[in-house]
Design goal:
This protein has 82 residues and is an all-alpha fold. Helices cover 60% and strands 0% of the residues. The longest helix is centred in the middle third of the chain and has 16 residues. It comes from Rhizobium phaseoli. This is Plasmid stabilization protein.
Length: 82
């Protein structure tokens, strides 16, 4: 099975990736993957989970108390019969 490859034509990017990989004791592929994941989170508009969940109740109009629902359906276990 062939391994997919990423070709970097920028000498500056290649040198930076090599330097970071050497310093972090990781492979160049790991450095590039982590950098792209960070870029996706910061620059591509991916919303953090905390702000997403903070925005949900006003949009949906209902607020569920999950603890109350779980506590309401709990029953005391009487134990095993011997």
């Amino acid at each position: 099975m062939a391994v997919s490859r990423l070709v970097v034509r920028s000498a500056k990017a290649r040198d930076l990736a090599r330097r970071l990989a050497r310093r972090e004791n990781r492979s160049i592929a790991e450095i590039v993957e982590r950098a792209l994941e960070y870029y996706e989170i910061c620059q591509a508009g991916r919303e953090p989970a905390m702000s997403f969940y903070a925005r949900l109740p006003p949009q949906s109009g209902t607020d569920l108390d999950l603890e109350a629902i779980v506590d309401g359906s709990r029953e005391i276990h009487k134990g095993i019969k011997l």
